[in-house]
């Protein structure tokens, strides 16, 4: 009997140790409720914001899936659904083999106006403020973001897990993510939409350049100060809008 109790004590100690080791601590975040849809591993949610953000007006850039400043290049079987614009650059390469299901604009009235409107939209997104803004930093993989304004004072990445945007049943909910420098996604990482969230209502304001990893899936409007690069097989449901640099693609799917 004494030997049996000893084994039970060791087993109990082991279970307690495992339970303690499995606790996850995330400052300023809370686990999703058991009734929430969990589209990916380790999904977390941040505090709900009460300040409602208005959409970022894209003006003439609205109809563009791709807009660049210095050039547009492609390798592989990229498929773009939506118009493509370049201003003030003149170099577009890789179509074909890339397929554009839309109209190409190079330094015409539409491209030039789209660039002006992109600048205004970028400044609008970057200048937004809120009394309950949520500060994020580093790697946000595993988070669930609810409507509102988010700010990163340095670079931002989605690498350790996927990210979900939850509109809480409001398809008009707006999400704005201010990123001071670069934005990257890891290979295979995905952005999910939940609770009626729409990709058209997500705005990523990127202070420098954005790079999307192999086969990653991003949703939303990317407003980058410099360049935007898609690695092989990366997908975007939204718009890739680069103010001064180039947009580079490699066998991607981009749907406005």
How would you describe this protein?
With 256 residues, the chain is an alpha/beta fold. It has one domain. The radius of gyration is 21 Å and the shape is globular. 40% of the residues are buried. The N terminus is likely disordered.
Strand content: 35-45%
Rg for CA atoms: 21 Å
Shape: globular
- Mean residue pLDDT: 87
Distance between the termini: 70 Å
Following the backbone from N to C, one meets helices and strands in this order, namely: HEEEEEEEEEHEEEEEEEEEEEEEEEE
The tally of helices reads 2
Q: Largest beta sheet, briefly?
A: 12 strands, parallel
How many β-strand stretches?
Answer: 25
Helix fraction, binned, reads: 10-25%
Count of discrete structural domains = 1
Helix-strand category: alpha/beta
Uncertain parts: 1-43
Compile the SSE list and pairings.
Elements: H1 2-21, E1 30-31, E2 44-45, E3 64-68, E4 71-75, E5 79-81, E6 83-86, E7 91-93, E8 99-101, E9 104-106, H2 109-127, E10 134-135, E11 138-139, E12 143-145, E13 148-152, E14 156-158, E15 163-166, E16 175-179, E17 183-185, E18 191-194, E19 202-206, E20 210-212, E21 217-224, E22 228-230, E23 235-242, E24 246-250, E25 253-255
Parallel strand pairs: 2-12, 3-6, 3-23, 4-7, 4-24, 5-8, 5-25, 6-9, 10-13, 11-14, 12-15, 13-16, 14-17, 15-18, 16-19, 17-20, 19-21, 20-22, 21-23, 22-24, 23-25
Antiparallel strand pairs: 1-2
